[in-house]
Design goal:
Number of strands: 27
Shape: globular
Number of helices: 26
Domain UBA: 652-693, 727-767
CATH architecture of the largest domain: Alpha-Beta Complex
CATH class of the largest domain: Alpha Beta
Helix content: 25-40%
Largest sheet: 8 strands, mixed
Domain UBP-type: 187-295
Subcellular location: Cytoplasm
Active site: 345, 823
Oligomer: single chain
Pfam family, one: zf-UBP_var
Structural class: alpha+beta
C-alpha cells in the first residue's frame, strides 16, 4: 500500500480533457454501476491489448475496462466502447527517459522507485544505467475522453479508489485460477537466493554420468547443494528411474536439483523437492559454476555436455542456428519474431510456418475487420480473434521496425525514448490454444508435430463460414490390407494432414565411419575423456521414401475371410495429394527403457519433390475383397449388463482412459469414441474396441450422437467438418427464441458462430440492424433440405487434389535429444531467399541446414 500511495501522488497525463476537482464525483455518478472491483478468479489484463500487441510501453498506452478488466490499445478501445457501452477505462502508460546527467557526466542515482508500479518486462535493448522508467495511470471516460488523474483520493468515490487499487495490484491473468488450470509460469524457488553449496571439490564431468547409487545413465539429476548425481522417478518427466534423487533429499534435506541433459544457455529443468514442483532458479548459472559447469557454453544432451574446456565439436546446435556466421537482421512485414515464454519455441516455429501460407493469411488477417467486429464479449477466449491478432502481429511489420539513427537522436533531444519492438509475446495466444491440454498448457518443451495437429484441430473446430484454411493440408490415404493366407484384400481411406517418413538407418552411406565413431565414443565415456568429433549418419531421402511405401505387417490382424486372426500386410498410398504437403521425419523413438531417443541424422531433403508414383490405384483386376464382416467384441461377463443399460453423456467420458489410449498413438477422437461406446469401462476394454474398428473409414471422425446436438458441435475435430454448414440444433434455437428473438435471427446467429450459444447472443446484440428477409428463409430451407439429403448420402472429406509435385518453402528443426527438451527454430523461404526465425531473432540465412530438419513444408507446383 505504500507504493500505491506514492502512485497516487503522481501528476496526471495529457491528451484528454481534465476535470476540475468539484466535477469529478458528479461526472462518475452515471457510471458507478459499471465500475467493478476485481473478484477472486477475475482475469485482469493490464499488460497486453486483446486485439493487438499494444502495451503500456506503446505510444498510445493501454486502456483497461473497469468492468470487464480487458485491455485495449488506442486503436481498439473505441470498438469496445461502441460494442459494450462501457465508458470508464484506466489508461496505463510507461515512459522511458534518459537519466539526468550529473556534473561529472554520470547519471544521477534514481531517487523514487515508486515511479514503477506496472508489472512489465523492461526493454532488454536499453542500458538501465542510461534510462529510467516512469509509470502513469489515469481514468478516462468515453466518449468525451475526460481524464481523471490518479490520485484524487479526496474527490474519487471510495468504490472507484478501491477498484483502481485492485486493478493495479492484480497478478498476471495467466497464473493458475483454479485446480483444473495448469500453471503457465514457473515460480521462483524460495531456496534459490540463499542456497547452501558445499565446498567439497566436486566437479561434474562433461559426459559419462551415472547414478551414484544404481549406475543408471538416464534421467539423472544434479543436486545443487552437494553435487550428487542421482536418478529421478518416472513421474518427474515421463522417463525411468529408481527415485534415488528423492531419497537423497529425504536423507540430507538438500532442496534443489537440476536435470542433466537439459542445461542450455537459456536455462534448465530445476525441481524443488521441498516445494514439490518444478521451479525457476534465477542464480542457476552461479550454482552450476560451483561444480565446474559453464552454463553459457552448454548444449543439452541426454548423456553429455559440451564443456568450455573441451575441444569444440560441430553439433546440431551450431549448424541449425548457423552459429559462427554473421547473420543480418531483417525487419518489416513478415519478419517479426516471437519471444520465447520458456520452452515455447515449438509454438513459435509452427506459427511462423503457418502464417507464411497465403490461405491462412487471407482467412485471418484478410478478414481482420469482420473477425474483430464480430468477436465475442471476451475476445481473449476466441480462437479466431487470437489467430487474427497473432497473424497481424507477424505480418503487419508494426512490431518489426529497424532502428533509425535520426529518430534516436531526436528522441534523445526530447529526453524520451520510444523503445523498438523486439518481437511480440504470444502469451495470450498460447494461454488460449493450450488451455485444458495437459501438455501444451505446461511450461515444458513439446513436440512441434503434435502442436501442428492440435492447431489444425482448432482451426477445424472454429472455421470461419465455409472457409477452412487447414484444407490445404488435408489429404486422403488409401490403405490396402491383404490377408496373407487367403490373399484377399480390403481397401479403406482415411484423412491425414502430414506424411510421416521413417528414418532408414540401414541405408546410411557412411556405415564404417559410424561404427568407428560409436566405438570411440563409448571408450571416451567409459574413461571420462572428451567425446570424439561427431559423425552423423547420412541417409538418402530416396531410402526414406522407399521405407514409407514398403508393406508392413499388421499385428493381430483379424481376417474376415477366415473369421479368425491371421497374418496380414498393409501398404499405404495417396488417394489425393494436398495443396501443401507437410513431411515429418520420424526422428524420435523410445529405447528399451522407454526413455525418448532421437536419431541424429543428415537426410538430403530435396528442394523439388515428386511423389506422383505414390498415387493410389484402388482395387485391381484379379483382386478379391475381404468380406465386410466385423469381428466380435469381447466384453467381460461382469460388465455386459452395465454396458447394455448404460448410455453416457459425451461430456461424461472418462478423460483419463482417453489420455491412456492417446498416449499409445491413437487419434484423440477415436479414443473418445472407444471410451464412449464401451460405457466408460476402462482403457483395456476401449482398446479392444479400437482394434476392432481401426480399419473403418470414420475411425478418427469425431463422436457424433443424434441426441447431443450441442456436444457434437463442440466435439468437431480435425477429421470432420464443423457444423457451420448445417442446421443449428433445435434445442439451442429454442433457447434463443425463448428470450424473445426471431427464429431466423437465432439461426443466422448460430450459423455465424459455429452453433456456440454464448457467441450467438453476442452476435445478435452486435447486429441490431437484422431484418427478416425471404432470401434468408429460402436459404435456410434449402440448407435443411440439403441436410436431409446429406444424411442419405454423406459428403466425403474435403480435399484439394492435384499434382504430386512440390517445392520446399519452409522447414522446422529441432536441437536436443528428445521432444521433452531442446530448442526449435524455423527457416522460411521468402522473396527468393531463406530466412531464419529463432524466437524473437529474424535474420537472413546464410547456410540453411535443410538436411537436419524435423518438419518440412512443401507447396504444390502448378502443373
Amino acid at each position: 500500500m505504500q507504493r500505491r500511495g506514492a502512485l497516487f501522488g503522481m501528476p496526471g497525463g495529457s491528451g484528454g480533457r481534465k476535470m476540475a476537482a468539484g466535477d469529478i464525483g458528479e461526472l462518475l455518478v452515471p457510471h458507478m454501476p459499471t465500475i467493478r472491483v476485481p473478484r477472486s478468479g477475475d482475469r485482469v489484463y493490464k499488460n497486453e491489448c486483446a486485439f493487438s500487441y499494444d502495451s503500456p510501453n506503446s505510444e498510445g498506452g493501454l486502456y483497461v475496462c473497469m468492468n470487464t478488466f480487458l485491455a485495449f490499445g488506442r486503436e481498439h478501445v473505441e470498438r469496445h466502447f461502441r460494442k459494450t457501452g462501457q465508458s470508464v477505462y484506466m489508461h496505463l502508460k510507461r515512459h522511458v527517459r534518459e537519466k539526468v546527467r550529473g556534473a561529472s557526466g554520470g547519471a544521477l542515482p534514481k531517487r523514487r522507485n515508486s515511479k514503477i508500479f506496472l508489472d512489465l518486462d523492461t526493454d532488454d535493448d536499453l542500458n538501465s544505467d542510461d534510462y529510467e522508467y516512469e509509470d502513469e495511470a489515469k481514468l478516462v471516460i468515453f466518449p468525451d475522453h475526460y481524464e481523471i488523474a490518479l490520485p484524487n483520493i479526496e474527490e474519487l468515490p471510495a468504490l472507484v479508489t478501491i477498484a483502481c487499487d485492485a486493478v493495479l495490484s492484480s497478478k498476471s491473468p495467466y497464473r493458475k485460477q483454479d485446480p483444473d488450470t495448469w500453471e503457465n509460469e514457473l515460480p521462483v524457488s524460495k531456496y534459490a537466493n540463499n542456497l547452501t553449496q558445499l565446498d567439497n571439490g566436486v566437479r561434474i564431468p562433461p559426459s559419462g554420468w551415472k547414478c551414484a547409487r544404481c549406475d543408471l545413465r538416464e534421467n539423472l539429476w544434479l543436486n545443487l547443494t552437494d553435487g550428487s548425481v542421482l536418478c529421478g522417478k518416472w513421474f518427474f518427466d515421463s522417463s525411468g528411474g529408481n527415485g534415488h534423487a528423492l531419497e537423497h533429499y529425504r536423507d540430507m534435506g538438500y532442496p534443489l536439483a537440476v536435470k542433466l541433459g537439459t542445461i542450455t544457455p537459456d536455462g534448465a529443468d530445476v525441481y524443488s523437492f521441498q516445494e514439490e514442483e518444478p521451479v525457476l532458479d534465477p542464480h542457476l548459472a552461479k550454482h552450476l559454476a560451483h561444480f565446474g559447469i559453464d552454463m553459457l557454453h552448454m548444449h543439452g544432451t541426454e548423456n553429455g555436455l559440451q564443456d568450455n574446456d573441451i575441444k569444440p565439436r560441430v553439433s546440431e546446435w551450431e549448424v541449425i542456428q548457423e552459429s559462427g556466421t554473421k547473420l543480418k537482421p531483417m525487419y518489416g512485414p513478415g519478419y517479426t519474431g516471437l519471444k520465447n515464454l520458456g520452452n515455447s519455441c515449438y509454438l513459435s516455429s509452427v506459427m511462423q510456418a503457418i502464417f507464411s501460407i497465403p490461405e491462412f493469411q487471407r482467412a485471418y488477417v484478410g478478414n481482420l475487420p469482420r473477425i474483430f467486429d464480430y468477436s465475442p464479449l471476451d475476445p481473449t477466449q476466441d480462437f479466431n480473434t487470437q489467430m487474427t491478432k497473432l497473424g497481424h502481429g507477424l505480418l503487419s511489420g508494426q512490431y518489426s521496425k529497424p532502428p533509425v539513427k535520426s529518430e534516436l537522436i531526436e528522441q534523445v533531444m526530447k529526453e524520451e525514448h520510444k523503445p523498438q519492438q523486439n518481437g511480440i509475446s504470444p502469451r495470450m495466444f498460447k494461454a488460449f490454444v493450450s488451455k485444458s491440454h495437459p501438455e501444451f498448457s505446461s511450461n515444458r518443451q513439446q513436440d512441434a508435430q503434435e502442436f501442428f495437429l492440435h492447431l489444425v484441430n482448432l482451426v477445424e473446430r472454429n472455421r470461419i463460414g465455409s472457409e477452412n484454411p487447414s484444407d490445404v493440408f488435408r489429404f486422403l490415404v488409401e490403405e490396402r490390407i491383404q490377408c496373407c493366407q487367403t490373399r484377399k484384400v480390403r481397401y479403406t481411406e482415411r484423412v491425414d494432414y502430414l506424411m510421416q517418413l521413417p528414418v532408414a538407418m540401414e541405408a546410411a552411406t557412411n556405415k564404417d565411419e559410424l561404427i568407428a565413431y560409436e566405438l570411440t565414443r563409448r571408450e571416451a565415456e567409459a574413461n571420462r575423456r572428451p567425446l570424439p568429433e561427431l559423425v552423423r549418419a547420412k541417409i538418402p531421402f530416396s531410402a526414406c521414401l522407399q521405407a514409407f511405401s514398403e508393406p508392413e505387417n499388421v499385428d493381430d490382424f483379424w481376417s474376415s475371410a477366415l473369421q479368425a486372426k491371421s497374418a496380414g500386410v498393409k501398404t499405404s498410398r495417396f488417394a489425393s495429394f494436398p495443396e501443401y504437403l507437410v513431411v515429418q521425419i520420424k526422428k524420435f523413438t523410445f529405447g528399451l527403457d522407454w526413455v525418448p531417443k532421437k536419431f541424429d541424422v543428415s537426410i538430403d531433403m530435396p528442394d523439388l519433390l515428386d511423389i506422383n508414383h505414390l498415387r493410389a490405384r484402388g482395387l485391381q483386376p484379379g483382386e478379391e475383397e475381404l468380406p465386410d464382416i466385423s469381428p466380435p467384441i469381447v466384453i467381460p461377463d461382469d460388465s455386459k449388463d452395465r454396458l447394455m443399460n448404460q448410455l453416457i453423456d459425451p461430456s461424461d467420458i472418462d478423460e483419463s482412459s482417453v489420455m491412456q489410449l492417446a498416449e499409445m498413438g491413437f487419434p484423440l477422437e477415436a479414443c473418445r469414441k472407444a471410451v464412449y461406446f464401451t460405457g466408460n469401462m476402462g482403457a483395456e476394454v476401449a482398446f479392444n474396441w479400437i482394434i476392432v474398428h481401426m480399419e473403418e473409414p470414420d475411425f478418427a471422425e469425431p463422436l457424433t450422437m443424434p441426441g447431443y446436438g450441442g456436444a457434437a458441435s463442440a466435439g468437431a475435430s480435425v477429421f470432420g467438418a464443423s457444423g457451420l454448414d448445417n442446421q443449428p440444433p433445435e434445442e439451442v434455437v429454442a433457447i434463443i427464441t425463448s428470450m424473445g428473438f426471431q427464429r431466423n435471427q437465432a439461426i443466422q446467429a448460430l450459423r455465424a458462430t459455429n452453433n456456440n450459444l454464448e457467441r450467438a447472443l453476442d452476435w445478435i446484440f452486435s447486429h441490431p440492424e437484422f431484418e427478416e428477409d425471404s432470401d434468408f428463409v429460402i436459404e435456410m430451407e434449402n440448407n435443411a433440405n440439403a441436410n436431409i439429403i446429406s444424411e442419405a448420402k454423406p459428403e466425403g472429406p474435403r480435399v484439394k487434389d492435384g499434382s504430386g509435385t512440390y517445392e520446399l518453402f519452409a522447414f522446422i528443426s529441432h536441437m536436443g535429444t528428445s521432444t521433452m527438451s531442446g530448442h526449435y527454430i524455423c527457416h522460411i523461404k521468402k522473396e527468393g531467399r531463406w530466412v531464419i526465425y529463432n524466437d524473437h531473432k529474424v535474420c537472413a540465412s546464410e547456410r540453411p541446414p535443410k538436411d537436419l530438419g524435423y518438419m518440412y513444408f512443401y507447396r504444390r507446383i502448378p502443373s
